[in-house]
């Protein structure tokens, strides 16, 4: 290699993140590609790390981060100790975000399809050509008065980028902007809207409670805000003089359940009835604090009647009721195991009623409504369902579809026939950074930055019973020829012209974001900044990772009208018990969530905390059930529902009911890069497609399955060690009589 070429190579790789980020200039400085550190950026000292505050966006919790950057390269992501959501903690998914930035399978520049859809045949094009192509398609729609046939589908965005996307769609003349995600917790939000008047998730004050009754909430692993709740749980158990108690109700023992004092393996689909039976017992024993509106409703759920339905002894129901009512403060939470059934709303409402009866709403150590989200929180639109999009596509009501952040082809059951519907959409554009299963159907791809390269903000839901506004800022220059998601919308608006360009006039997204924060500053000036001017407030927020105000105590009561949504019956499962004897519980795995983490090798190598399995899928079966089927650990089996079949090796798991099997979600990708593709199986494929008619949330716990022996296939790879010595003499044994003889000889 020539010296000149070597210097160019070093220059291209070494450009750093500088003070220009504060000013919104994320482009590389002139001459940076040759020898950038002759005149390094002003906030970089070669050999000395710089730390930038930002936010993890790989799930919806909104944990604050500190990113260690050395000479322009992101080296490590840690939790921000000053951020109120995570207080310095960060889960494995957040730690792995640097692997999304430097992933070898990123889409590095715009692509245009040149082969049949799904063939993977794309040609690289310029950004100018990509924007003009997409703009021309939209302009043609508008000229034909078919603006309503434009749809935008994204992951559950919030904050300023959500407002910009909404403005773009509205200015174009369409009302079709939808959020889609597998774990949006819409049922929980709808239950809270019905009971407490707010379509959000409150702050569950686990830290200060003394008795926590969890109905399937795996808050130590994947539920809502696991780092925040894990911090709180640690304080609850060890942070005060009195050790709090945790009781976990769920058919499959989760990571949270493994840390509980008691596990109550209720029959799948009956958790709502169990919660109501506990509430009724509290009323009957005269221990209720606020039950005036619920006596009549609860009288139908007597413990002696519900015990056989829930498969929980009546004595245990009564003991839980007494302990829950007498321990102050206490708290009940409804997790995915409850809200993912067909009657998920009913289950979440039942838990809210239980909290109301015990006097746990609006008190420290109980349910704390968050109140004001500063006007920028994630909005849950219950009317926007993926089935609506499928119906519209089949009815020729979608001509152009733009997708960002959502991967519905992977996270929607095959029974929904989504891919068939997408084939009827004439033009699909994706803004994804990766070739996932949905992006593989796109006609054109305009790749957006990863979160470590982009601007944004976040307003966490749930919060911490206090206003929290976090800033996402770029910590490195763009690694590839990608663009800020906000800049894509802004530049596309200019290319479309007309009303759209007139509505969105910001020069770039960094300025649009800053203007949005000026509004936040004006509305909350006294609380947010006191005597600080906006520029000082802005720079301080960049430095610390955002702004958060003092705690606010909010109160609420559970409306008696919520009783209208109680079903009073166990959840239904598809499939006749005689043919399909086992309940199937698909669950979010710690590392992969809904599959988004499967392309990050650190997460593939991370042993599952309950099984130690890596790089694959498994099916959890009770040892007694496995013995009755003639199965042993590692055997390949077929898991078959009325809607399809997948295969996986057996993991013998005592922490699951004998009538239930469980399969983790996240593997089984057909696309999504070298680390995810062709690995494991996706249990979502064999589910029925059921949506709650009120909330729109899919019912994951909704089918029975049968287990049959399969052909040899994928090995069960575990990190917990071998059960065989293979002649190595690792474990030495001796009989009691021999031990006594040896002991005498030694003496």
Report on this structure.
The chain contains 25 helices and 25 strands. The strands form 6 sheets. Strands 5-4-16-15-14-6-7 form a 7-stranded mixed sheet, with helices on one face. Among the domains are: 186-368, 3-Layer(aba) Sandwich (Dimethylsulfoxide Reductase, domain 2), CATH 3.40.228; 582-709, Barwin-like endoglucanases, CATH 2.40.40. It has 747 residues and is α/β, with parallel strands linked by helices. Residues 6-32 have low confidence and may be disordered.
DSSP strand count: 25
State the CATH class of the domain at 186-368. Alpha Beta
Q: How does the helix and strand content classify structurally?
A: alpha/beta
The biggest beta sheet is recorded as:
7 strands, mixed
Mean pLDDT comes to 88
Low-confidence stretches: 6-32
CATH superfamily of the domain at 186-368: Dimethylsulfoxide Reductase, domain 2
* Count of runs of 4 or more consecutive helical residues: 25
Rg: 27 Å
Query: Main sheet: which strands, in order across?
Result: 5-4-16-15-14-6-7
Q: Percent range for helical residues?
A: 25-40%
How far is the N terminus from the C terminus? Answer: 74 Å
Shape: globular
CATH topology heading of the domain at 186-368: Dimethylsulfoxide Reductase, domain 2
- Named at the architecture level, the CATH assignment of the domain at 186-368 is 3-Layer(aba) Sandwich
Strand content: 15-25%
């Amino acid at each position: 290699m020539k010296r000149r070429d070597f210097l160019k190579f070093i220059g291209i790789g070494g450009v750093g993140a500088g003070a220009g980020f504060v000013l919104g200039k994320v482009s590389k400085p002139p001459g940076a590609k040759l020898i950038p550190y002759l005149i390094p950026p002003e906030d970089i000292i070669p050999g000395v790390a710089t730390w930038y505050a930002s936010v993890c966006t790989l799930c919806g919790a909104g944990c604050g981060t500190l990113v260690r950057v050395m000479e322009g390269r992101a080296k490590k992501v840690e939790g921000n100790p000053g951020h109120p959501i995570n207080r310095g903690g960060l889960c494995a998914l957040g730690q792995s975000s640097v692997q999304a930035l430097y992933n070898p399978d990123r889409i590095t520049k715009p692509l245009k399809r040149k082969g049949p859809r799904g063939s993977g045949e794309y040609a690289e094009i310029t950004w100018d050509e990509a924007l003009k192509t997409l703009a021309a398609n939209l302009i043609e729609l508008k000229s034909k008065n078919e603006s309503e046939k434009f749809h935008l589908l994204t992951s559950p965005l919030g904050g300023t980028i959500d407002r910009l996307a909404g403005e773009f769609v509205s200015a174009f003349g369409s009302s079709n902007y939808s959020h889609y995600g597998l774990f949006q917790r819409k049922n929980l939000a709808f239950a809270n809207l019905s009971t407490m008047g707010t379509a959000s998730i409150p702050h569950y004050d686990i830290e200060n409670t003394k008795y926590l009754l969890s109905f399937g909430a795996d808050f130590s692993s994947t539920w809502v805000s696991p780092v925040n709740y894990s911090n709180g749980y640690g304080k609850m158990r060890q942070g005060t003089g009195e050790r709090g108690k945790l009781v976990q109700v769920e058919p499959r023992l989760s990571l949270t359940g493994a840390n509980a004092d008691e596990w109550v393996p209720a029959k799948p689909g009956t958790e709502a009835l169990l919660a109501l039976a506990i509430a009724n017992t509290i009323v009957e024993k005269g221990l209720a604090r606020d039950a005036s509106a619920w006596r009549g409703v609860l009288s139908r759920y007597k413990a002696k009647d519900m015990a056989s339905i829930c498969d929980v002894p009546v004595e245990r129901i009564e003991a839980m009721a007494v302990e829950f009512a007498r321990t102050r403060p206490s708290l009940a939470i409804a997790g995915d195991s409850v809200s993912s059934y067909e009657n998920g709303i009913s289950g979440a409402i039942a838990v809210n009623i239980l909290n109301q009866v015990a006097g746990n709403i609006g008190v420290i150590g109980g349910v704390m409504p968050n109140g004001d989200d500063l006007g920028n929180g994630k909005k849950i639109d219950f009317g926007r369902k993926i089935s609506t999009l499928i119906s519209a596509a089949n009815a020729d009501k979608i001509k152009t579809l733009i997708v960002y952040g959502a991967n519905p082809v992977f996270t929607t059951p095959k029974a929904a026939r989504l891919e068939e519907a997408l084939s009827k959409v004439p033009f699909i554009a994706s803004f994804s950074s990766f070739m996932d299963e949905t992006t593989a159907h796109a006609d054109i791809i305009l790749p957006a930055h990863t979160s470590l390269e982009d601007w944004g903000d976040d307003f966490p839901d749930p919060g911490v019973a206090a206003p929290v506004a976090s800033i996402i800022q770029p910590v490195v220059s763009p690694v590839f020829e990608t663009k800020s998601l906000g800049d894509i919308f802004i530049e596309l608006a200019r290319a479309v012209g007309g009303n759209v360009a007139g509505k969105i006039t910001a020069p770039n997204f960094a300025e649009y974001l800053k203007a949005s924060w000026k509004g936040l500053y004006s509305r909350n000036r006294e609380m947010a900044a006191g005597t600080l001017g906006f520029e000082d407030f802005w720079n301080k927020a960049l430095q610390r990772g955002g702004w958060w105000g003092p705690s606010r105590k909010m109160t609420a009561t559970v409306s008696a009208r919520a009783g209208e949504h109680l079903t009073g019956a166990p959840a239904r499962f598809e499939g006749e018990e005689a043919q399909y004897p086992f309940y199937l519980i698909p669950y979010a795995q710690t590392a992969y969530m809904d599959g988004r983490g499967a392309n990050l090798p650190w997460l593939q190598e991370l042993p599952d905390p309950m099984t130690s399995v890596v790089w694959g899928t498994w099916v959890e079966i009770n040892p007694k059930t496995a013995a009755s089927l003639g199965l042993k650990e590692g055997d390949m089996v077929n898991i078959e529902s009325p809607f399809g079949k997948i295969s996986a090796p057996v993991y013998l798991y005592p922490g699951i009911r004998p009538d239930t099997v469980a399969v983790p979600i996240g593997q089984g990708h057909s696309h999504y890069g070298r680390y995810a593709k062709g690995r494991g199986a996706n249990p979502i494929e064999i589910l029925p497609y059921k949506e709650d008619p009120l909330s729109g949330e899919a019912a994951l716990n909704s089918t029975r399955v049968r287990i049959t022996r399969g052909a040899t296939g994928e090995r069960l790879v575990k990190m917990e060690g071998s059960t065989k010595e293979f002649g190595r003499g690792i474990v030495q044994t001796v009989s009691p009589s021999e031990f006594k003889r040896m002991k005498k000889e030694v003496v």
